[in-house]
Every structure is written in C-alpha cells, then in structure tokens.
Amino acid sequence: MKIKTKLLLTAGASIAVALVLGLVVFLTNRQVDQAMAKGQTADRMLEHVSQLNNVASDYMLHGEERAQTQWYSRYDSLANLLAAEEFGASIGEDLQGMERTFAQLVASRELQAATGAEIAVAEAGEERLVAQLSLRSQSFAADAGELADESRAEISSTRQRATFLILALVGALLAIVASAGFVILWNIGNPIARLTRAAEGIAKGDLNARLDITSKDEVGILGRAFNTMAGALQDSYTQLERRVAERMAELEAANRELEAFSYSVSHDLRAPLRSIDGFSHALVEDQADKLDEQGKNLLGRVRAAAQRMGQLIDDLLVLSRVTRGEMHRERVDLSGLAQATAEELRKEGPERTAEFIIADGLVANGDEQLLRVVLANLLGNAWKFTSKHEKARIEFAAARQQSGEPAYFVRDDGAGFDMAYVDKLFGPFQRLHAMHEFPGSGVGLASVQRIIRRHGGRVWAEAEVEHGATFYFTL
Amino acid sequence: MEKKAILLVEDNPDDVALTLRAFDESKVSNEVVVAHDGAEALDYLFAGGKFAGRDVNAMPEVILLDLKLSKVDGLEVLRRLRADDRTRLLPVVILASSKEESDVVNGYKLGANSYVRKPVDFGQFAKAVRDLGLYWLILNEGPPQGRRA
C-alpha cells in the first residue's frame, strides 16, 4: 500500500474519531441538560405541591373564594409543568385525582354552606376527602421526588458513560497518531536514511552503491529510480574512462611517431651534410693548385651553407623536444643556471670583455632542462648581439610586477631591435637581422616561447635599436 | 711494437672516406679496417665470413662504431661483442650522427666506453678524429691483448 494512502487513512481515521468525540460530547451535554431540566421541574413540582397543600389547608380553615381560585391557579401551573415534561401516567393520574378530590371538597363545603347540613356528618365526609387529598398529594410528591432522583441518577450515569467513551476515543486517537508516526518512521525515515547513505557513498566515489528497497510504495519507486540513476552514472563514468584511455593511446601513438620522425631526422639528414662539407673541404685542399680564389670562395659558401643547415637541424630538434617531452617540475636555481651559461659563453669567447650581472637567489618551479634551454638562448642572444660592442653588459634578474608575480629578465646593451617588428620576434625562423650581421637560425626565441608557455607563463621583449634589449618572462 | 688496428664500423661510404681522410691528416698510421655493416663487423671480430682465418688474438685497439647500420645495427653489435669473452673488454667509441639522449644512454648501458657525435663541419670532424686517435691509441691503456676476459 502506498504511504500516501496509509497517511490519508490515518488522517481520515483521526478526523472520524474526532468527529465521534465531538458527537459524544454534544450528545452527553444534551442528555445532561435534559436530565437537569427534568430534575428542576420535579423540584418545582414539589414546591407547587406543598404550596397547593397550604392553599388547600387555608381553604379548609376559612373556605374563602380567594383560596379556591389560588388552588386552581396553582393546579393549572402544576398541570402545565407536568405537560411540559413527559413524566408518565401515574403522576398525571395523581394530579387529576387531587383535583377531583379538591373539587369534591369544594362541592361539599358549598353544600354545607348552602344547606347547613349536620356538621358531624359533613366533618366526617370532609375529613375523608382531606385525607384523600393528602394521600394523593403525598403520592404525587413521592412520584415527583422519584423523578428528581431518576434524573440525578441519569446525569451521573450519563457522565460516567461519557467519560468512559471520551477516554476510549482519545486513546484511539493517540493510537492512530502513533501509528501514523510509526508509518513515517518505518516506511519513510528508515529508507531515507539508507538513501542518504547510498548517495553519500556515490559522492565519495563508490559507484557500486545500490539500494535494496523492495517495497511497492513511493519509497520503493524512489529507491529503484536511484538505483537506475547510479547505474547510468557508473556506465557513463566507465564510458568516459574508456574514451580517455583511447584518447591517451592515440596521443601516445602520435607522440611516438613524432619521436621516430625526430630520430630519423637527427641521423639521416646530417649525414649528407657531413659529406657536402667534408668533400668540399677535401676539394679545396686537394685541388688547391687548380682552384682560384673564386673557386675556393664558392666552395667556402657551400661549406658554410651545409654547416648552417646542420645548426638548423639541431635547433629544430631542440624545438621539437621542447614541446614533446615530459615536464618534470621541481625547484630550479635560476641564478645557478645563469652563472653556468655565462661561464660557457665566456669560455667560447675569452677575448671579449663582457660583464655578467646575475642576481642571487633566483629560484623558480619548473623543468630544469627546459629552463636551461631558455637561459642558454636568452643569454646566448644577449652575448651574440653585444659582440659588435667593445664592452658588453648583460644582466639577469627579476622584477616585481603589479600582479605580485616576479618577472625574470635578461637585459643587454647590444644591438637591440626595432620595436616595430616585435610581433615577429618569437615566430620560428623569424630573424630581424641579416645573416652576415648576426648568425642564427631564428629558432631560439621560438623555443623559448614554447617552453615558457608550457610552464604557464608569458614572454615579451622591449628594445631600442643600438641601445640594447630586455627579454622578460614569467613562469 | 706492432701497431694495432682500428676497426671502423660505418655503412655510409662518404663518412668512411671522410674518416679515413681525417685519420690521414692527423697522421694516424695504424691500419684502419673498415666493416660496412654490423654483420661484417662481427665477422671480422670473430673471424667469420670473409675474415675467416684471421688471427683472433689480434684484436683491434679501438672500435669506432656507428649506430645506424644495415643488417645488424650498432647497438646489437655492441651487445654481442660485450657478451663474448674475447671481445668484452675492447674499447668501443660510438661515433654517431645523433645526440639523442636515448641513444647515448643505451650506448653506455650496453657498455660503450665513449660516445662522440660526428660534427657536420669537416674541420671539427677532423679535429675530433685526431683527438680520438691521440687518446685511444696513445694515451689510453687498452686491455692486454690475447688474454681472455
């Protein structure tokens, strides 16, 4: 049975019981009122009867017309009282008997007064009538008294009955309320607790949580719906996982292909270059007497081109490794890396006077290998573009930005570049200087940008022609 | 003292020519034996194939090994000669085109003694060869010949 039905039933039952309770109270009150009314009437009748007797005695003593009239008027009101309540035949008879006796008494007196009959006979007859009257009125009074007693008894028993009934009904009401409470607790509260636990279980990640609810009511429907939902959730989760795994496999396959490609490039492309360069050299050496300056010059250019291509291939490999490889984030001593790079650069060009100003204690979170590449490129560029100046000043430090993040920068006072071309700066193979001015493949800054981007940072530059350049980056 | 041979394992004929030229220029007068692929290299070392009858006690002073070879590749040659008592101690210098980390690591893992990347520029290449010669033929003490490992 549905919970709704059960609760409606209990509500209906409570209402019914309440109604019955009301009815019982109402009826009881009415009965008590009626009984009380009867009692009161009986008491008034007693009063009237005694008054009637007094008036009768008065009449007997004085025989006045006034007393007679009084007696009859009293009699009438008593008869009215009697008629108002249904008191039974015997008491009515008594009253009528009293009236007849009194009428006889009156008739006898009037006869006496009219005829002057012997007093003794008349007195005997009168005494008898008076006795009869008294008897009748006593009987009446007794009846009235009985009636009064009856009504009091009725009141008492009605009250008793009513109390009993009311207590029983209240008890029934309590039982109904209790059963409603029980229904809620058992059919709703318990399952809800289990539902809550299952939902929490799923929230925590246990997608196997299911409800074991078999009832056919609303809670059962909810339980089954929950199970269906959990099942669907689990399915979609499994599907997602599978799709992620598939995508990962695809990505890994693509990565492996890329690695194989790079590997092939690094071996296969360089070999012919070696041949070009080597045999050109051999030609120049072996055929020196047959070649003129022009010829040597031409072969020189061939060799230079081959070497440049070799450099290009190396740079390309670095660029591809930069985007491909896994990043291992750790604490990196940027100051240390910069110092090491500066040392290498100094060794490459010991004849140069260059001042390296490297701030101490610069640490960052990132991939050490890749950050090494960044510094090598930026410091190497600074070194390269200050090569035409007698003295060079290269600085590596950090500046605090508005956002609170530090921006690292490499600043040099070398050739600089025209800010008009700043957008092209980081494109691969983009160069802002002629090859004979400053050699380079144009891949270095592209690598730097990719590495910085992989760290989630930005890189930008400011410069002025012949007044140096500053390259900033965040991590 | 009899000068020991150098075994050059290289499949690219251009590279062979250039290497021999470089050896000439650096006045290396040792005999240079050229194996043009991995199988030939193993044949030479273990006196098989066209080298049958060679005196296996006369092992080369140093082996210059390229990685990308046909038939049997460089790392496999390395693995085999490190697996054999007769050749386990021979100095092997990997002279390769690539600087790929995986190649370097695998080379050392399989027991190479040195790893040198061939520069494109011939001048640098010649210098590298001369330095290699100076080191492995003159400065370095090789394992005693004729003794099993």
Structure, explained:
The complex is a heterodimer of chains A (about 475) and B (about 150). Chain A contains nine helices and seven strands. Chain A has helices spanning about 5-60, 65-85, 90-115, 120-205, 220-285, 295-325, 335-350, 370-385, 445-455; strands spanning about 330-335, 355-360, 365, 390-400, 405-410, 460-465, 470-475. In chain A, strands 2-4-5-7-6 form a five-stranded mixed β-sheet. Chain A has a two-stranded antiparallel sheet with strand order 1-3. In chain A, a hairpin with a 5-residue loop joins β6 and β7. In chain A, α4 (about 120-205) runs parallel beside α5. The longest helix of chain A is centred in the middle third of the chain and has 86 residues, at about 120-205. The model of chain A has no long low-confidence stretch (mean pLDDT about 85). In chain B, β3 (about 60-65), α3 (about 75-85) and β4 (about 90-95) form a beta-alpha-beta unit. The two termini of chain B are about 25 Å apart. Chain B is globular and about 40 Å long. By secondary structure, chain B is of the alpha/beta class. The interface of A and B includes residues 268, 271, 272, 273 and 278 of A.
